[in-house]
Design brief:
Layout lengths: L13 E5 L2 E4 L2 E3 L3 E3 L4 E2 L25 E5 L9 H9 L3 E5 L1 H13 L4 E5 L13
Parallel strand pairs: 6-7, 6-8
Antiparallel strand pairs: 1-2, 2-3, 4-5, 4-8
Length: about 130
């Protein structure tokens, strides 16, 4: 799906999303990535929501955002509750949704000038990961 905002103002706007791939401005990412309004962490090594730990959000916690939108892949899958509790204890909200919804929500909050972070998880090899019950 193509996405567009009238004025990006130099911010990291999601311009397209399709399963397994996101485009931020003109850059295409096919691996897990953390996106903030003005910075990117393209080397985020998370590939499974179930294995996610609070420490994996380290790149965000230097200047914590108001809210983290966690894209858990092609389907909504919640991380261990301790991950969410740790972020909430730091005053950071967290919302979990599938990657497509996460991209749309991030763009809306970005357009509202909110200090938001988008953490998208792309499986290393989607066919080798058991989606569970």
């Amino acid at each position: 799906m193509k996405m567009a905002l009238d004025d990006t103002g130099g911010r990291n706007v999601i311009t397209a999303y399709e399963p397994g791939r996101v485009t931020v401005r003109e850059r295409v990412f096919e691996r897990s990535v953390i996106i903030l309004p003005t910075t990117l962490h393209a080397d985020w090594r998370v590939t499974d929501t179930r294995a996610l730990r609070a420490s994996d959000f380290g790149p965000l916690l230097e200047k914590p955002p108001e809210v983290v939108i966690l894209g858990s892949g092609d389907a909504q899958l919640f991380p261990n509750p301790s991950v969410m509790t740790t972020l909430m204890d730091l005053g950071v909200g967290i919302e979990v949704m599938d990657n497509a919804a996460a991209c749309r929500t991030y763009n809306i909050l970005l357009a509202e000038d909110r200090h938001v972070a988008l953490a998208l998880i792309f499986a290393a090899d989607a066919e080798s990961i058991d989606p569970g019950p």
